Every structure is written in structure tokens, then in C-alpha cells.
Amino acid sequence: MTAQMERAYLGLGANLGDPVAQFERAVAELERSGVSVLARAALYRSAPVGPQDQPEYTNTALLIETALSPLELLELLKRIERALGREDGVRWGPRVIDLDILLYGSVELSSERLTIPHKELAKRRFALQPLADLAPEQVVPGLALTVRALLERLDDDPRSVRRVEPA
Ligand code: ATP
Ligand code: MG
Ligand code: MG
């Protein structure tokens, strides 16, 4: 019997080191772990959330296909974060890589360890904008709104998240 494959969207962020190189390594590590990366969003740059005395963030998103359960996927993402040198630090402090599960199929779940859809997704242009590159018409489970509609609903400055070209 073949394992049930699910599609999920990951949000990637980094503001230390070389964010684009770290995204490349994260993609390679995902593939090496049996996760298929089906599509990649453009790169975006924005001011940090939380402490302002840290570098700007680069963000992107991935569409993946995996046989891992949501919790197994979370564990893999944490392993990859550590492998890329992420250290524990202050909440929303600077990091070499952040790998978050934005959406996992039509799953809605909320536990201490994992909330899907990501609990801040609807508020964050830096997460919604790359996700919209991949899936603008995707309805976000629990919200009954598309990614595009969530973006249009934000009342911050659309220019706060800027598309950047890879170097
Ligand atoms: P934020 O959640 O606001 O984006 P963060 O990504 O900086 O903050 P982390 O330190 O990376 O936070 O993760 C803290 C914990 O969040 C993780 O250990 C994980 O258990 C939990 N978590 C809950 N939901 C998710 C999710 N959808 N994706 C990734 N981690 C999640
Ligand atoms: Mg995060
Ligand atoms: Mg995280």
C-alpha cells in the first residue's frame, strides 16, 4: 500500500547569514528526507516582527508533497532548522532559518505543539504574499477565505513586503 500523500505549504524566513543560501539548503534537506518540493515562491524582504534591532527578513514559501503526518513534518522541520545552525534565542529574535507549516491539506488542528493553519498566517503579509504566489485561490481552512482575500483584507502598507531578485 502506498502512503497517503498530502500537499502542504511551508513558510521560510531568515535574517542572519545568507538567507537565500539557507533556503537552498533547506530545500535540499527536505528533498533528501523524501519530501517533494513542487513549487517555490519568489523572495520577499520585510522589516522584522518583534524586536526591531535586528536585520530585515527574507521570506519565501514552498509547496511540498509528503507522506509525513503534520507532527512528523514539524519534527523534520525542527531537525533541519538545527542542522542549518538555528540556535534557541528570544522569541521572534534573529535566526538563520525559520521553517513553519502554513497549511497542510485541509487540516485544521490546534495543540500545544502545532497549530494548522499557522496561527498568525492571516495577519502576516510576509507569509501571505509568498503563499499567494503559489496558491492565491486556496481557501484557508477555518477562515473560509482565500489567500488572496486575506491579503486584500490586511490594512498595513503593501510596500512593507518587497519582492527581491535572487543575487
Ligand atoms: P511564529 O510561530 O510566530 O512564526 P516562530 O516561528 O519564530 O514564531 P518558533 O520558535 O520557530 O516560532 O517555533 C515555536 C514553536 O511553535 C515550535 O516549537 C512549534 O512547536 C510551534 N508551532 C506551532 N504551530 C506551528 C506551525 N504551524 N509551524 C511551525 N511551528 C509551529
Ligand atoms: Mg515563524
Ligand atoms: Mg517557527
Describe the structure.
This protein is of the alpha+beta class and 167 residues long. 27% of the residues lie in helices and 28% in strands. The protein is built from 4 helices and 10 strands; from the N terminus they run βαβββαβββαββαβ. The longest helix is centred in the N-terminal third of the chain and has 14 residues. The protein is globular, with a radius of gyration of 15 Å. 34% of the residues are buried.
Write the SSE topology.
Elements lengths: L5 E9 L4 H14 L3 E5 L2 E4 L10 E10 L3 H14 L14 E7 L4 E2 L4 E2 L8 H10 L4 E2 L4 E2 H7 L7 E4 L3
Antiparallel strand pairs: 1-4, 1-5, 2-4, 3-4, 3-10, 6-7, 8-9
Helix pairs in contact: 3-4
Bound molecules: adenosine-5'-triphosphate and magnesium ion (2 copies).
What key attributes describe this structure?
167 residues; six-stranded antiparallel sheet; binds adenosine-5'-triphosphate; binds magnesium ion; two-stranded antiparallel sheet; globular
